[in-house]
Fold this protein.
Amino acid sequence: MGVMRLGYVHVRVSDMGAAQHHYQEVLGLQRTDQRDGKVFFKGWDEWDHHSVVLEEGGAGLVKMAFKVEREEDLEELETRMAKFGVQLTRRHRNEEHAIGDAIEATLPSGHQVLLYHEAEVLGTSTGLLNPDPWPDGLLGIGVPRIDHLLVTAEDPHLFTRFFTEVLDFKISEKVVPELGSDQVLASWMFRSNTPHDIAVIPGPDAKLHHFAFYLEDWSSLLKAADVMSKTRTPIDVGPTRHGITRGETIYFFDPSGNRNEVFAGGYITYPDFPCITWTADQLGTGVFYHNRELNEAFTSVVS
Amino acid sequence: MGVMRLGYVHVRVSDMGAAQHHYQEVLGLQRTDQRDGKVFFKGWDEWDHHSVVLEEGGAGLVKMAFKVEREEDLEELETRMAKFGVQLTRRHRNEEHAIGDAIEATLPSGHQVLLYHEAEVLGTSTGLLNPDPWPDGLLGIGVPRIDHLLVTAEDPHLFTRFFTEVLDFKISEKVVPELGSDQVLASWMFRSNTPHDIAVIPGPDAKLHHFAFYLEDWSSLLKAADVMSKTRTPIDVGPTRHGITRGETIYFFDPSGNRNEVFAGGYITYPDFPCITWTADQLGTGVFYHNRELNEAFTSVVS
Amino acid sequence: MGVMRLGYVHVRVSDMGAAQHHYQEVLGLQRTDQRDGKVFFKGWDEWDHHSVVLEEGGAGLVKMAFKVEREEDLEELETRMAKFGVQLTRRHRNEEHAIGDAIEATLPSGHQVLLYHEAEVLGTSTGLLNPDPWPDGLLGIGVPRIDHLLVTAEDPHLFTRFFTEVLDFKISEKVVPELGSDQVLASWMFRSNTPHDIAVIPGPDAKLHHFAFYLEDWSSLLKAADVMSKTRTPIDVGPTRHGITRGETIYFFDPSGNRNEVFAGGYITYPDFPCITWTADQLGTGVFYHNRELNEAFTSVVS
Amino acid sequence: MGVMRLGYVHVRVSDMGAAQHHYQEVLGLQRTDQRDGKVFFKGWDEWDHHSVVLEEGGAGLVKMAFKVEREEDLEELETRMAKFGVQLTRRHRNEEHAIGDAIEATLPSGHQVLLYHEAEVLGTSTGLLNPDPWPDGLLGIGVPRIDHLLVTAEDPHLFTRFFTEVLDFKISEKVVPELGSDQVLASWMFRSNTPHDIAVIPGPDAKLHHFAFYLEDWSSLLKAADVMSKTRTPIDVGPTRHGITRGETIYFFDPSGNRNEVFAGGYITYPDFPCITWTADQLGTGVFYHNRELNEAFTSVVS
């Protein structure tokens, strides 16, 4: 009941041709549709119509969309969001292409969040009958699915309150200014059993830090990094490990400057997961466990 | 809301000394407690008091215990279980050691299922403050946590109905006698985002086929198999891959003849996961994807 | 000076179409040439004209060919082979297609061994100028190169004496009937720094047990096993680890019944490598480290 | 015949206690001996008395020592070295502790090179009788053996000529100022079948850039990087892949500022390996394949 997962990320790109090449031939997503200047993509292991939507117009996040488990969750969450004081708009079936009735919220941070229950189902590439574990003919990195996104907000504490109090996310890890503080400088939040479906760090409102695709393991990250070099895809950081989430990672950029991540590993969360705390002085280790320090660009470059 | 995960498995062993050596020094679980002839273990990445309980007396399953998200889930599920016609017993706080109020059901298949909401919390080995990704000093395979169990039942269809209709599990994969049949010969069911928290195959009632521990990836399985050889732990099958769940696996036995598994990989499920169907003629490939055939012992040996 | 490596293996196949499909699309070798009923293949990381030669006519080994470092090695080894009492034939340039002057020996075991110094050079797929680490467009398993072969002989001790005394191979590991015995029941021998370029076990004369292709690591073996299942290539044993050589392995069959192996890992040898001894009672563990036992078919099925 | 391998590296350290902790508990080498202010170490898979020698006195290379295959190689190489104009000193048995008769050369670059044939044999940790593939009880990263070293020289071309013309090394890869140039700016050279036993890049004479230990695969590098973070061992670069050698790598520093590397993968060389050429403009990609650029510190910091 409630939010199941990050359904899709809708971002702006400055050159649709270059962007399509990146998401299709470097990441290996499947282009599933095109309409009204938007191009739709899904990973081979996803069944819904899309998990990434691109539209021309620079860079940055148009909206993030979460899929809820039951039709009636929409109404209940609408009431809760209204009570939190969030500005809401109803989206009728197919107003968002291939998506059912939906509610769109403008958060205090300026981010657009869409909640929906229904999506057109295209099916995975391995199918539903006696399937193989992976399909032939994948391009580039061949990511199976989207995993999470990370955004910046001027008030990460308020952003975290919205996702936990209204949308019932749990916090897996948080950064506090010092031990014992109630102030949340950054948080990693989950509804699924992954370490995070969304995370927030301090920064300008309405901005995207990165969105991430899932990879099976550390070995897949090596191949991914090799593909990035072959295709001249600029790597930001990695391959390395996060302290926070314990996951393995490569950060890189799409041709418009939107930061992507491929993410593997990480622990399993449950609603009773005991929240992990990082003190601000250890944040470097939290983000990049091997080098134990943040570089300036990593925190300042957003889209 | 409802069942969060497989909380623990309680099994009988014929020689407690040998069993402790196996679960502690081969699997690398931590022995957390001992009381009334029972010995309690948890993985290093688990926070609750135990995920495995051993007691002397041969081999086989005493009970499987699932943890529910909210206190009030117990009452609601009790009502539903009663309506399904299952025989129920209330267990008061600490009747099950280190566990809160609970309800125990005897399924039509003769399996004992315990539902509980509260457990004593011991914490993970890496802690909650600026943690490292893994602890030092692990023994043997060093499994982080329990993952799932598989049982046999004379009527797997009925067993599946109980878990899906009463406990709200979803079916990730099922075996049918032939395409189009409504009859479920075997099923893999989840409440978490893993491919399965419990599964059932045809066989004698009240029996255990295996219970499984999670490993990070295929590389960890190689080390696990090496440790099994070093410790003369008899391997049943593997390392190999499952067709069903797509996971990587080694089956092996504890000294009492209870089958264990170490399991890695597998896809991510959500409540809208489209159920995969295997036809009975492809079951060999479904269980052992590489060899594409079942051996007789695998389906007949249970405890 | 002397033998550098196993240059190529020349085997018989019963159905050239099926065989080509296997070596090209399952193993991912490159078909480099065809002449006089023979088809030639090389791995993407090999530079010489071929490492596998197929010809129609059942199954089994036509000859194994070793490349020597210097032209003058041929003459010196010819003298030594003659002194050992081996029957020799000179092969003039291109009598063996794309191969320079060569000497062919018929061993006491009936195996044909060819020594050559020169081969037509085709180059690797990644090239010699600012290369990428791996090429795009590989098919199937995508093996980079041949690694070793294992044959059977009625007198493995004599076979071992030929390779060590005449061709200057060193023994990395040997099986003896009991501790202290001078009798070699089986041996693994090297000229390169790999654990073995050739090995011999007891069995019928003039027979092939298997020839092996190199894979980078244990992760590559999982993909290889998946490809075998997808292509219905019958797996004999594995993925598993050898005790002898410490390497990771999958045995499987080509459509004609010649056993292949993909082999990863293993230690590095040098001429002063201290020979490892296995007693016959531990041979099961030596061959299959995880299961610690040999199956009957593994030792009896040869081609 | 001739040089078999890099036998050992003898370096200066500024604090022997900190250095011992690093080589023993972080790298996991075994401390085998101590004498005359020197401390001796070997990897668990090495059989000779030592592969690393430490002595107090700052940082940097005292000497690199290569083991030759035959006693008579010493005399032959002595003659050749003298002819090349290199200054030579004979070292009698045990003048170098646990080493037989030896010849020490002072290269034009100021580096000391020792050639020896005999070393005290201690044996590997897994032994010579029915061995397991790896020993229990390894500390930290648990490196099995030394792999290669890289030094700087003001005239890398001359350095390369010494190793190839006198010591019969082959060049696997070289950097040239531009295509077609005969000038070697940097070279990677081998006597074994690894991509390199020694390499040279431009820089100050008599200096050490790094020495490297072998690791089995990319998965082992992740554990190594984790151990470095846990032990606060400063990582220089990695985990990543080299374009040159195709190997996977982490660079890091010992407490005295000597750069170490753990190195996995890489192709197999043979004496007929076709030399790979890198043009100077692609050197960034050659050294760090993923990021495709060199950082200033990497080329300027030596010891």
User: Anything to note?
Assistant: Chain C has six helices and 17 strands. Chain C touches chain A at residues 132-134, 136, 217, 219, 226, 229-230 (CB under 8 Å). Chain C has two domains: 3-116, 145-300. The mean pLDDT of chain C is 97.
